[in-house]
Structures are given as C-alpha cells and as structure tokens.
Amino acid sequence: MPTGYVYEEIFTQHDMPDHPENATRLAAIMQYLTDHDILSKLAHVPGRLAKNGELQRCHHPLYIEMVEDTCRFGGGMLDADTYTNAYSFEAASYAVGGVINLMEAVVKGQLDNGFALVRPPGHHAVPSQAMGFCLFDTIAIAARTARQKLGLQRVAVVDFDVHHGNGTQAILNEDPHIYFVSSHQYPFYPGTGGLNEIGVGPAKGTILNVPLAVYTGDAGFKQLYNEVVFPALRRFQPELLLISAGYDAHWEDPLAHIGLTLTGYDWLCRALIDLAGEICQGRIVFVLEGGYNLRVLAPGVGNTFRALLGMNDLEDLVGESPYKEPDVTHLIAQLKRIHQLP
Predict the structure, then answer these.
(1) Is 0.90 surpassed by the pTM of this model?
(2) pLDDT by residue (tens digit) across 10-41?
C-alpha cells in the first residue's frame, strides 16, 4: 500500500507574501517532491471542507463563526502574528478535512502512512483564539476524531516543531486517552511547555513536555527521544501516532535556535516511523507545522517522505550545526523522575 499525501491549491491562497508563514513554503516543497521524483510515488488524498461538528471537537462555535465571518469580509489580523484573507477560513477548513481523510485511510489500512502538506499550521490555536500563525488546531481535531469517530482507545501526538504546541496541549490537557509530547525551545514563544505541565485531573501524566536549551542539536535529540520520549510512548501503547512536523528546529531556521540538522531530522522521523511499526501497526501520519528556511524545509519534508516510502537515501546539503551542544543529562534525569520512567 502506498504512502499518502494531502495537498490542495487552496492552501496556497491563504497568503501574505511578507509574512514568514507564506505560500512559498508549500510551493518549495511541491517543487522539490516533483524534481526528485518523489511525488509520483505517492497517493494523493483529497482535502475537503471540515464539517462544523468536526471543528467543534476542539473549538468554540462562536470562535469558528468569527473566523469565517472575518474571512468572508476580506480577512484581517486575528492577533499580532496571525493573518487571514478571503481564502483563509476555507484553507484552514480544507486542512482539517484533508488530515482527517488521510488519517482515516491509514487507520483503515488503505494507506501505509502519510504526510499532510497543509496550511495554515495549527498547533498554536487554542479553543477560542488564533495564535502563532494558526487558525484551527488541525492535529488535535484529528486526534479527537480518531477517538470519537474511528473508535481508537489511545492516540499519541508528537510535536517536534521548535515552538511549544500550546494549543494542542490546551485542548488535550484533560483527555487521558490522548498522549501529547512536545519537544521545543524553552523559554521561548509562546511561553508554555515547562517540565511540570503534565496534564490535569484524569489526564495527569499524559502530557510530556521536553523543554530544550538553545542549540540542543542532533545528539541531544537522540538522547532525549531514546531515553525519555520513546519509553513513554511504549508505555502508553497508542494505536496511532500523529506528528506535528515543524522543520524550524533546524540550526539555520530564522525564527529559532535549536540546532538540528537535516540528518538529525531524518533520524528522528525514521525513529518515529520505526516506533509506529513496533507499537501501532505502522499507523503514522505527519502534519506540516512550521519551518521558514526554504532550503531546509523542502529537503526536510522530502527526506521524511523518503523515510515513509522505505527509501534509504537522504539529502543534507546544509550540513552540520556550527554551535556547541549543551549537555542534556540533567534534563533527562528530571523528566524520568517527573514521569516515573526507568
């Protein structure tokens, strides 16, 4: 069975050319996939408008209505960072519908796995507010849909965008059936994602935040994921992995300073794919979030598709980080203690 992808032209019509999150991001990715003969190996999964009930699984009806009305009248800024235009509501709605379609195809065994190339991103959107370039929390809606419509008992969301997935956490903070992992630069925008944010009530212990010092880099990521994140996910035993895939943790990204390389990203994505094969029948779906350096973003996504397809090659023309990595041993010990990991 093939690897699926979601892409629709409407995603490029949500655009503000001078904004870092603009339509050239997807154009660069699609050009790369075409030029490197990757797109021809993939199965296209169509986007669709999300149903209102699907959006309401994570967002307040009045907020949904506000976003739609704003776009109907030409758009505007929903906060200092988050723009809309006449096409933005449709694009965000199509993104949600497309991710749900892709996820359903993977869960039903019609596809091996997949990657949703959607815009606008989603992981900062909280139930009643747009934030950080995001309108609707696409991946949280997908996780809730997997539980409520597809009948899965346990779902995990792993967010390796350089910014904390505060919207996803806010939505899932009291849901014991969805495990949320976020590795992110800290302290940094949006200011959340500390060690002790672990979920509340019956969901206590199902939020795993990995707050990273600047320039943590490839070696630190390997240690933290191997010694903390993967053991925690094995303990939870999800039936589906959903990945908030942000490529802005690369050392050359203009908006952050973590220090991953494209080779490090490739290791991380392949390790997540291997873990899905081990614990949830290979069910894994990547959803595009951030990444603002096009010469990193396009091959980074291309490498992830190569991994999903079972290809062994990767491209890293940017090379190694010039920055010295901090020691993560103390952070690992703290996380193991807080989350009671061996």
Answers:
(1) yes
(2) 999 999 999 999 999 999 999 999 999 999 99
Task: Supply 15's token pair.
Answer: 């655009």
Is residue 124 annotated as part of the catalytic site, yes or no?
yes
Q: Residues 318, 295: contact at Cβ < 8 Å?
A: yes
Residues of the chain under the 70 pLDDT cut = none
Which of 124, 163, 164, 184 is catalytic? The answer is 124
The angle formed by the CA atoms of residues 321, 327 and 333, to the nearest 5 degrees, is 135
Give the tens place of pLDDT for each residue, 155-185: 999 999 999 999 999 999 999 999 999 999 9
Q: Is there a contact between 116 and 304 (Cβ–Cβ < 8 Å)?
A: no
Structure tokens at 330: 């103390």
Q: Cα–Cα distance between 156 and 170 in angstroms, integer?
A: 15
Strands (E), the chain: 3-6, 43-45, 113-116, 155-159, 178-185, 207-212, 241-245, 284-288
Q: Which amino acid is at 105?
A: A
